[in-house]
Each structure stands twice: as structure tokens, then as C-alpha cells.
Amino acid sequence: MQKSLMAIFAHPDDEQLVSGTFANYAASGVETTLVIATRGEEGEIAPGINATSETLGAVREEEMRCATTKLGIHHLHFLDYRDSGMVGTAANNYPRSLHCADLLGVSAKIAELIRLYKPQVIVTFDPTGVYSHPDHLRVHRAALTAFFLAGDANAFPEQLQNGLSPWTPLKLYYPVWRRVWVQLFVIFLRLIGQSVPEFLQTLLDNTPPNSAITTQLDVSAYVQIKREALLCHASQSGPDAPVHQTPTPVWDYVMRTETFVRAYSAVVSTRSERDLFAGI
Ligand SMILES: [Zn+2]
After folding, report:
1. Which of 109, 106, 110, 132 is nearest to 123 (CA)?
2. Single pTM value for the model
């Protein structure tokens, strides 16, 4: 049986939560698929980047393709919604925004890709959306719905006339940071004289305790590839960004492990896993 892994996220660079995991599985023969709902059109543009608000989506699509190639991910799909921006901004109400999209319609698009690639394991945002970004929350809800409907022949039956068949994924994971790393990054920002952005404080508030972590993957062989993939997203964080000023040994130490909460499993699973496919 071909192993297949799918991640569903909102913006280019969200995949950095699991970049080592995807590089690792892709290199070991697992079919890997990345689904990104928007092109990140509303994010801030890093200094020195040749982009405008009109071209930013195209720039970020190229950056996403760069990171996908670095990580060896086999398939990249955009769902073609527009970035909804941070909560309370005008972009929330743009007709093409993910925020305004019909949730079941988003789920249908995701379910179609689940039926196409037949992933046993799916990774997406947790219910907090990591830092409560409106698009992250939408993706969480749509992906969760698709996870449970893709195997139901009565759901989105029009897709089954085109050669697709129902497919039931077996395991669902939420990538999470270790609280201590987020706390230390906040301290690091203060030490280098930077202010702590609001999203980072929200992330800290949303990060679950260590005891919630069920699964940790050793991706130490991929820390350099992770760094290169992150650098692809130059319009989001230039070389001067705090994340790139982290001393290399510290970066390597933190990035060598990726941690997950197992949200659902249809197979017998142990309390502490080191493989997303354990039990399959
Ligand atoms: Zn995002």
C-alpha cells in the first residue's frame, strides 16, 4: 500500500510547522501533498522585496513553489481563495476571501483532493488556528469536515462521477509548538530589543501544554533543508528577520523535532508516537 500524507493550511509558509516532517516522509517514499487555501495576499511585505499588494499573491505562489521543491513535496494545490487578513481588517469581507467562502464549498474542494490522493494521514491547524488567524480557523473547520466526509459516498456525489471514489483517512494530526520554545523566542526578541508581535502572544496563549503532545518526529537530518525552505518565503521574513537571527546551534536544536497532537485515529495508537503512520 502506498503511504500518502496530506497537509492542509491557509497561507504560503504555514507549511513551515511541518517542513521537516514532510521532507522526511517525502524522502522515504511517502506520497506527500500540500494544500494551501490562499496565496497570502494580505500579509506584510518584508523590506527590500519587489512586490506590491497587487503582485504579492503571485510572488508568494512562487515562494511556495520554491519551498515545495526544497522539501521534496510531490503535489502542491492552491484552493484559490483570497487571504482574509488579520481579524477585524477590511480584507475579511472581500468576496473572494476564505473568510466569506461557503464552508461546505471549501470542504468539498479538500474532500476532492483527499479522494484523489488517498492520504492515510492528514495534518491541519488545531482548533485555535495556532494564533487565531481567521483563515487558519476556517481551514481547521473545513479540513475537519472534509476528513470525515471524504469517505461518505453520499457527500459531494458529483465528484464520484469523475472516477474518484470515497476515501476514509485514518489519522488526523495538529502540529503544535512546544510551549517552552515559544516562551524562549519571546525572551530572545526582548533581548535583541524587538517588540513582541501580538500574534506571538496569541500563539503563546494558544499553545497547549507539553502533556497534550502525543507525537514527536526526529527531523534532525533536515534542519538545513528546513532553513532553506523558510528562506524561500523571502517576502514574509527577510534575512534580517528575528527568526533568521537566531544563532544556528539554537535553531538546529529547536528545529530538530516536530511535535503534534493526534486529534483522531481509527487505528490502535500508543500514547507516545514517533511516526505519523504508526499503527497503519
Ligand atoms: Zn498562515
Report:
1. 110
2. 0.96
